Amino acid sequence: TDEPVNMRLAPKNELLAKAAGYLDTATSLSEKENDVIYFLKAKIASTQEPAETTIGYLSKAIELNPGNKEYYEERGTQLYNAGNYAAALNDFNKYEELSINKRIYCSYKTDIYFRLRDWLSCFRCIDKDIKYWDCSHRDYYLYLDKIKRAYEDQSPTGIRSETTNIIHTLNTLIEEEPAAIYFLIRGYIFEQMNLSIIAIENYTKAIELNINPSICYEYRGWAYKKMRNDTAAPADFKAALQWRPFDESLLEQTRF
């Protein structure tokens, strides 16, 4: 095709557009030894080549321009997808360090900490994520589902050591800073252990601390239902409906 490179690739961000422009105009090897060229090569390689090729191009871009946070973000993502979690974490931390707003890169970091069973960092990351972004009830479902998987993955016999670690970590965090999300997670863990009364106490504390009300009322409603409290359970499901009035699963629980 005779179309210019930047039109053919239709880059969506400014960095790719700049790189495409370099490809159009660069004539010497020295001109091609530019970080944005390697970034563009990495973006192209990510759809065609093994992960190590893409990571290699990104490493070269970082070598030439170590102050560009986008390169660390991209390489961190590639390393994460390749299962190299420790190296990915280093890149996300560097991205964070170079970012003006200092917002933690939680979507990947939370999962990495979860995989590494670093509960202290995992829960702190979740707390920051919730404080920075307007998380929906579905985000909370995802977080709690991860915790549930950690609980279920343990041996059914003997002491559930991971559960002990999780509760101990949450107790420590609550002593340092009683964030609502820590009470929600701790309540959820106790509920998995069939300790509904203690779970309800933690859900109530999360409500008092003004975390996402719908998710707290919903989970407290389930705990009450497990205890066969046919007055408190529907009341909590109705309370959750104030924020999710068309949620059929909640509506169904108000009818029994």
Please provide a written account of the structure.
This protein has 256 residues and is mainly alpha-helical. The protein contains 16 helices and no strands. It has helices spanning 5-9, 14-25, 29-32, 35-45, 51-64, 69-81, 85-98, 106-115, 119-132, 137-152, 161-176, 180-192, 196-208, 213-226, 232-240, 248-253. Helix 6 (69-81) runs antiparallel to helix 7 and helix 9 (119-132) packs across helix 11. The longest helix is centred in the middle third of the chain and has 16 residues, at 137-152. The protein starts with a helix and ends with a helix. Residues 1-12 have low confidence and may be disordered.
Keywords:
256 residues; mainly alpha; 16 helices; 0% strand; elongated
Distance between the termini: 66 Å
Q: Ranges with pLDDT <50 over ≥5 residues?
A: 1-12
Biggest sheet descriptor: none
Q: Which percent range describes the beta-strand content?
A: under 5%
Number of helices: 16
Number of strands: 0
Using the alpha-carbon principal axes, give the shape.
elongated
Report the radius of gyration as a whole number of Å.
24 Å
Structural class: mainly alpha
SSE order in H/E notation? Answer: HHHHHHHHHHHHHHHH
Bin the helical content: over 70%
Mean pLDDT: 81
